[in-house]
Amino acid sequence: MTKKNILLLAGDGIGPEIMLEAKKIIDWFNKNKKLDIDYSEELVGGASYDENETPLTDQVLYKAMDSDAVLLGAVGGPKWDTVDFAKKPERALLRLRKEMRLFANLRPAICFEELVSASSLKPEVISGLDILIVRELTGGIYFGEPRGIEPIENGERRGVNTHVYTSKEIRRVAKVAFDLALKRNKKVTSADKSNVMEAGLLWKEEVQSLYDEHAMYKSISLNHMLADNCAMQLVRNPKQFDVIVTDNLFGDMLSDEAAMLTGSLGMLPSASLSEKDKHGRTRSMYEPCHGSAPDIAGKGIANPIAMILSFAMALKYSLNFDQEAELLELAIKLVLKDGLRTADIMEKGKQKVSTTQMGDAIIAKLDTKK
Ligand code: IPM
Ligand code: MG
To answer: Closest ligand 1 atom, CA of 256?
Structure first.
């Protein structure tokens, strides 16, 4: 079996706690399924800032570029609130995304049947929910120039960010959405603000023309939705969606909203992928959609499932271990069926478990399926 190298960047807050559980899962697969996944660990975010005065060293960035996949926990926290903007923990994440050219961010919001009543929405609204948000990740207002804060007259200041997209940036992420929709329910909703922003109008036009130009997408139904309406439709009738493709900022917000349809932000994994380089290699990073949750960090109560599901996505998309990914997803499902719950998804009559106990229970289920 070919050796795979993955880089683990646990980061801040609950990052190290949930990463510990992911490591146990990797060890399990290496031992029981004879996978040869070699992992190393480095600092990122605030943890790196404390040690190196930068949230991401060049050395760690190069290591990330060289890995078959990067697994990231979370970055940020109040401890670094007063740090220079350019050195904030979040800059590490954004630099990794940009330099590794991870333009396609896949955020699947799947409601496990066992968690239907853990959501704040009515069970019938979310039961059977399976949507995929494809978020553009290296463009838009997150990276547009000019940007900054500058002094103006009368002692006032002006803050500037630029929302900008090129045709190429829009088309390549739309292509990812269409290609994935072909393997799913063949429905793509593109969310934009074409009624207000020129960049939004370009978004809509490019998505439409890519669709029109490719006969192979004919079996897909494409619709365009204003992003604010999309936010509303997500809580009104989320099952109308299959694949949602949208820009960096709307994708950030719509995916947090979609996460709550699954019961908890602690359940949503993500994959960020680059284009193939000239050697046919794709760079990738996998991370839970939730943040570092400083309020619960160090308490051992965080939900490790989004992190573990992110590793399952790595197995599928980067390491070519589809069966193993499915086995891992099944183990999670069975643990939930047994009634085990971390605090964020706890309900009356269920058994409350810690981060470690959740990880151990998933491993125990894997053991029954060896
Ligand atoms: C996310 C996060 C990040 C983002 C933050 C931590 C920079 O919210 O991955 O959704 O805004 O992209
Ligand atoms: Mg976010």
So the answer is: 10
Determine which residue's CA is closest to atom 8 belonging to ligand 1: 252
Cα gap 341→101, rounded to integer Å: 36
Residues with CB under 6 A from ligand 1: 76, 90, 93, 252, 289, 291
CATH number, residue 75? 3.40.718.10
Q: Given 228, 295, 322, 367, which residue is catalytic?
A: 228
Nearest CA-CA partner of 73 in 219, 316, 292: 292
Phi, psi angles (nearest 5°) of residue 262: -90, 0
* Closest ligand 1 atom, residue 287 Cα: 9
Mean pLDDT for 71-94 is 97
pTM more than 0.85 = yes
Q: pLDDT tens across 108-154, in order?
A: 999 999 999 888 899 999 999 999 999 999 999 999 999 999 999 99
Could you tell me where the beta strands, DSSP code E, fall in the chain? 4-11, 37-42, 69-74, 104-110, 130-136, 148-151, 157-160, 187-192, 221-226, 243-246, 271-276, 282-286, 340-341, 351-352
Does residue 31 lie within any of the structural domains? yes
Specify if 214 maps to a domain: no
Closest ligand 1 atom number to CA of residue 94: 7
Tell me the CA–centroid distance for residue 211 and ligand 2, in Å: 28
Does residue 193 have an active-site annotation?
yes
Give the C-alpha separation, 293 to 189, whole Å: 31
> How many Cα atoms sit within 13 Å of 163 on the Cβ side?
16
Asked if the structure places residue 227 within a domain, the reply is no
Among 162, 118, 127, which Cα is nearest to 303's? 118
- Say how many C-beta atoms besides its own lie within 10 A of residue 368's C-beta: 8
- Indicate whether 17 belongs to any domain: yes
- The structural domain count of the chain equals 1
Looking at the chain, how many residues does it have? 370
Domain membership of residue 57 as a residue range? 1-106+270-370
Q: Residue 319 CA to chain centroid, in angstroms?
A: 17
Q: 252 C-alpha to center of ligand 1: Å?
A: 6
Q: Is 221 exposed, middle or buried (0-12, 13-18, 19+ CB in 10 A)?
A: middle
